[in-house]
Design brief:
Layout lengths: L7 H8 L3 H8 L4 H5 L5 E3 L3 E8 L3 H4 L2 E3 L3 E3 L2 H9 L3 H11 L3 H4 L12 H4 L7 H17 L9 H9 L13 E10 L5 E13 L5 E8 L13 E3 L21 E5 L2 H11 L3 E3 L3 H5 L9 E5 L2 E2 L3 H15 L3 E5 L11 E2 L1 H8 L7 H15 L1
Length: 374
């Protein structure tokens, strides 16, 4: 099959209203999501419990959204994200599943079967040129951003201050910057508007740029009034985000690691050492330490479902297998009260730096909490 002989318009038209069948044929890893469109399920790329969902109109659009990577507005972009294909490869696969509609003009209506899944496994991964375009877009966006001390970066400084953080804790690091206006697309891929944003540079396990994390803001330093103000840009296939982190400072043989950016900054403010952000519980569980690391101190989120501590415990097991000591630091359970969850930023704002435990104290807290979850 040669994608150069295909026109996308007839394939798009034929696929509309048939995406449920197409995705079942082309992407069996989406079975859980296909069983309940519109509801969150485990992400087929990153795992976890509820990091992905297909749009309610998936049969028409074919689209879905990953909580980590963002929205794929149609079935072609969804297959590109999921399979690592470029657009011509996705077009070929969809056309074949439709029975060659672009050439025959009949396709599914003729009763031709969908392409067998086994045949699709031989299709190549995303071309290097596509990955180069992603990296170029990431680098261009980063180059357009401003240092946090720039006069134009006031919304970023105001945002941090509103969160109870001293903007000065960014001193000496260049992993967080400010962008004056980034486009925002909703979960259905529709353009909403341009907003200021806090940008964070996400490094892969190899230390190279993997993607950028965006926190959309208002000019007054509040979170932007959008459905998902925190999103990742497209991820470089050559430098996957899994295993990486937002490296907020230079570390030595000890790495302090938290989930969210603001949680990491809160710990940094309290104990005055660099703290990296893993972005999410799923990515925290898969973190890969630098060569020469002896200790990783994991500043867990505490939630009633135990997701944060479970991810930290999974990472601790992985580190122990590498001969690296892991220490879990969990917020005081007494602070949870009637809330779904708390993190170390909550601790900083409610109790101050004095409430931050030493590593030896934290071990007992983590152990007791894990026993209660068991």
């Amino acid at each position: 099959m040669n994608a150069n002989k295909l026109e996308s318009a007839p394939v798009r038209a034929a696929a509309r209203g048939r995406w449920l069948m197409l995705l079942q044929a082309l992407a069996p890893e989406l079975d859980a999501a296909l069983a309940k469109p519109g509801r969150h399920v485990s992400c087929p790329v990153h795992g976890g419990r509820d990091g992905f969902r297909l749009f309610k109109d998936v049969d028409t659009s074919g689209g879905g959204i990953c909580n980590t990577c963002g929205a794929s507005p149609d079935g072609f972009s969804l297959l590109q994200w999921l399979k690592g294909w470029n657009f011509p490869q996705a077009l070929v696969a969809v056309d074949a599943a439709l029975g060659g509609v672009a050439r025959s003009g009949v396709g599914v209506a003729s009763g031709k079967p969908a392409i067998p899944v086994k045949a699709l496994k031989a299709m190549p991964r995303k071309a290097a040129s596509d990955d180069s375009q992603i990296l170029r877009r990431l680098e261009d966006t980063w180059a357009q951003s401003k240092h946090w001390q720039d006069a134009l970066s006031k919304p970023l400084r105001d945002y941090l201050a509103r969160r109870g953080l001293e903007p000065g804790i960014l001193e000496g690091m260049d992993a967080i910057r400010f962008h004056a206006g980034l486009p925002y697309l909703d979960e259905d891929g529709r353009y909403v508007g341009h907003f200021p944003a806090m940008l964070a540079r996400v490094s892969g396990a190899d230390g190279k740029l993997a993607t950028l994390h965006r926190t959309y803001l208002t000019h007054e330093g509040l979170k932007a009034p959008v459905e998902s103000p925190k999103k990742l840009m497209s991820v470089s296939a050559g430098h996957p985000v899994l295993g990486g982190a937002i490296r907020l400072g230079i570390t030595g043989t000890v790495i302090d690691l938290a989930e969210g950016i603001e949680t990491a900054l809160a710990v940094r403010q309290a104990i005055r050492v660099p703290v990296w952000s893993a972005i999410s519980a799923t990515l925290l569980a898969g973190f890969e330490p630098l060569p020469g690391t002896l200790i990783v101190r994991i500043w867990c989120d505490l939630d009633r479902k135990g997701v944060g501590v479970e991810a930290a415990n999974k990472l601790a097991g992985h580190l122990t297998g590498k001969g690296i000591q892991a220490e879990l630091l969990v917020p005081p359970e007494s602070m949870l009260r009637d809330r779904k969850g708390i993190d170390w930023l909550d601790v900083l704002n409610e109790s101050g730096p004095v409430a931050f435990p030493s590593p030896s104290q934290s071990q007992a807290v983590a152990r007791d909490f894990l026993q209660e979850l068991a």
